[in-house]
Amino acid sequence: MHISVRYFILGIAAIPFIYYLIALYSTWQFFRRTPQTPRDVGLTPPVSNLKPVRGLDPEAYENFASFCRQDYPDYELLFCVGEESDPIIPVIEKLQRDFPERRIRILFGSGGKGSNDKVVKLARLVSEAQNEVVVISDSDVRVRPDYLRTVVAPLADHKVGAVTCFYVPIEDKTFTDSLQTMGMFSDFYAGILVARQLDGVKFALGPTIATTRKALASFGGYSAIQFRPADDLLVGRLIAEQGYKVELSHYTISTVADYASMSALLHKRLRWVVVMRHMRPWGHLGLLLTQGLPWSLAAIALYPSAAVALGYFGIYLCLRFAMTWMVGIWGLKQSSLWKKFVLIPVWDAIAFSIWLVSFGRNSIRWRDGQYYIRNGQLVPVTSSDAEPAA
């Protein structure tokens, strides 16, 4: 290989380090601010908690019960379930018995025909909600009593159309859970903070979205995206496009891990990456320049010396450890995370492999179905054209 080509590759291999430095700066910029407490604002409008559910998640009762223990004056809890035979129904009925002072309703069936079952349910939930302010959350979410006060407070500013927040696992019970946690803190959240710093918050995170029916209606509501994947990201983007501000809160919620196996984690990650490839093709391709591990190994392969190994792989490890420490330990107060730092290169190797595989996938597996993504929409795969799905 010509020496000029080698130097060019060495230069490209250093680009991920620039991204890591931007991530460190973005993280510092976000977490250095002192968040406003909800009682400083005093906004407590009536709220409708909306939960589209399907099937029985681990510790579902405890998750739902946390929403019944809110330090908030006026709110309802509204579920939408596909069928009356769903195993989650007895859990919700027990919730109604245990918390008779709370307004808890169950809706059966969405009444819609979209391919995105969650979004179709949300469309009905929004239409049936009794209040203007709605808080949407996943079934694996568990919250503290100050949750509603905190996520609703920024909506006091009429320029704010939505509020979202980070989430942290309650407990990592398996190696798969630990690997997912490391990927979340070292990779996913770092990317979110870089996006916020460079382009503002034009997305939302599915575990929690606080918004208003007016903000949702400004882009046509959930019925307008009932055939689209990545509804959480889309809702944030579409609300921002209407001129509203999307607030990324300093507040954190908890989630219960539900990865039954390594295969389940890999399929979920691959599904998300394939969706992003279709929704943001250039951004997806640009991820190559954020992959420090393969580029460092490529540099060492070109110049197998101690100096190059220390210069590239050593810097890679230092920056990745620093990113994870700033996001997870300093920012999100997960003090025990340092015990899992050894998994950072493991996650990076897996993430890079999934990124490569994603270019050969045109369909995804979601719940019990397989779908193509065509023109930004979910299209069910028929038996005649089925292929292995992500």
Describe the structure.
This protein has 390 residues and is of the alpha/beta class. It folds into two domains: 3-28 and 267-380, no CATH class; 34-261, Spore Coat Polysaccharide Biosynthesis Protein SpsA, Chain A, CATH 3.90.550.10. The protein is 47% helix and 17% strand. The protein contains 15 helices and eleven strands. The chain has helices at residues 3-13, 15-31, 38-41, 60-67, 89-98, 117-128, 147-152, 175-199, 213-217, 231-241, 262-279, 281-286, 292-302, 306-331, 344-358; strands at residues 47-53, 75-81, 103-108, 133-137, 141-142, 160-169, 208-212, 245-255, 363-366, 369-374, 377-380. An eight-stranded mixed β-sheet has the order 3-2-1-4-7-6-8-5, sandwiched between helices. Strands 9-10-11 form a three-stranded antiparallel β-sheet, covered by helices on one side. The chain is globular, with a radius of gyration of 22 Å. The mean pLDDT is 91.
Q: Short description, anyone?
A:
The protein is of the alpha/beta class and 390 residues long.
Q: Under the CATH scheme, which class of the largest domain?
A: Alpha Beta
Helix content: 40-55%
Largest sheet: 8 strands, mixed
Evaluate the radius of gyration: 22 Å
What's the total helix number? 15
Series of secondary-structure elements, N-terminal to C-terminal: HHHEHEHEHEEHEHEHHEHHHHHEEE
Oligomeric status of the shown chains?
single chain
